[in-house]
Design a protein that fits this description.
2 copies of one chain form a homodimer. Chain A is mostly helical and about 300 residues long. Helices cover about 70% and strands about 0% of the residues of chain A. In chain A, strands 1-2 form a two-stranded antiparallel sheet. In chain A, helix 4 runs antiparallel to helix 6, helix 9 crosses helix 10 and helix 14 runs antiparallel to helix 15. Chain A is globular and about 50 Å long. The relative contact order of chain A is 0.12.
Chain lengths: ~300, ~300
Amino acid sequence: MDIRKELADRKSLVDSWLKDAIPNVDPYAEILGKAMEHSLMAGGKRLRPILLYETMKMLGADPEQGKNVALALEMIHTFTLIHDDLPCMDDDDFRRGVPTCHKVFGEDIAVLAGDALVFAAFSLVSQENKTIPAATTVAVIGDIAKAIGPRGVIGGQVVDILSEGKQPTEDLLSYIHNHKTADLIRVSIQCGARLANADSATMDLLEKYATHLGLAFQITDDILDVEGEEDVLGKPVGSDEASGKMTYPALLGMQAAKERAEDEIANAELELSKLVGFDVRFFAGLCDFILRRAY
Amino acid sequence: MDIRKELADRKSLVDSWLKDAIPNVDPYAEILGKAMEHSLMAGGKRLRPILLYETMKMLGADPEQGKNVALALEMIHTFTLIHDDLPCMDDDDFRRGVPTCHKVFGEDIAVLAGDALVFAAFSLVSQENKTIPAATTVAVIGDIAKAIGPRGVIGGQVVDILSEGKQPTEDLLSYIHNHKTADLIRVSIQCGARLANADSATMDLLEKYATHLGLAFQITDDILDVEGEEDVLGKPVGSDEASGKMTYPALLGMQAAKERAEDEIANAELELSKLVGFDVRFFAGLCDFILRRAY
């Protein structure tokens, strides 16, 4: 399987879905719509909706039925990026190769565009879908809310901010990576499994796979912030060190950080090998892609 | 009916519920928990959860079954206050008689505390409740997401910000008040009606009542910002004029603004009079309370 081609194909599909799903605004609030669209359509790998899509597909469900949840995950991911980039947080000027939301629309509109994407996301998920039982939709909403909330992505972001400039420790770094990054990757796969009505053993294996994949993803992100190329990444390199971020290269050194990413991917592959009876090629290819990724 | 006593009793109940529902955080993110608690427990009238409670009670449902949704509405209301108060928005130092979230915890933590309350709210609503059908929970989530999202409260806040310092117009002001304030009041009553399984005619009347009540609430808020007493209000007066906010006193003058509030209350009472067969005393008392409120 050519994983890069698969990812590009899926990204095109998600991009076309997203284009039709930019949340509507009233004429007076036109700038809010533009700000949401700016950040939503700035590009990105669309990894989270793709994970949901491919999970449903692998488990034999129709992935088109997961469209609203897939789009909601990308909207929520974009919300986290907009708020993370704010001057009072990471104060980043570029993201996905374009100026960040607050650079274009101002800090006030950026905060509100992030907020609005969250409610637009939950509005999408709650839309009627005759093929998905309401109880499943409620469970998916609960999964997402927990994964992002105070003990999830947002908790991770808080600890990431508090840790700036401090001596890195394994415990703190593991907390940050698990929550700030892996939680959203994990819940994307978890929601796909829920929508496909997976049994609890399958769900459990997939969640473990996703957690290892998510950790590897963040470690390679840390590595790319040191060794990546700006024009491929779409954002400046070296920003983690400049702002004293806690990262694996800072904790362990570059060589050991790379080995840690390889270990996480090996663990992900181990979980995948226990998933008998499904075509796991996409998810195996993804392991390979993440280890070698340049963006 | 002594509406002030009723409101005080209900507020005590909501406060005790809230105390037990402060979202949990992990030890590393302790400050996030403190920031959420600071703003959630800073007081406030608890009007939105009370509206849900009283709607369910009036319609013959057990209001205790609406507890999670009631708390979610207060969490989301608190989220809007935290973000509205940010330096990049209204830059307010006091709210409900105590320093605003960002004054105590910093702007970064305040943004994230607001964000976290939203996800904590949706997590609460999605919790299993055997007496509420999953389809009703999905509908309630959809109602809330739409009422707050880009065409709701957040759209209203965007237009409120954009309108600062501009010549007030009836259209713009009506948009701001309808969305920034009335939408959340309306959806509190709407969710109560949904949870009580109200028919569509009752729902419709209640929504109209709620919209007029919400508009009156915001007009009296504007009036109190001119004529209120700081120690009763818990925030400085005169801030609307200082920041060039679009308000009814600014558009119409004080006397006509007071008449407009009376008109909205008269319209709310008219809708209430069409609601036959229910004990509407609480909702009638509320009309009176809002016209005479000092905080």
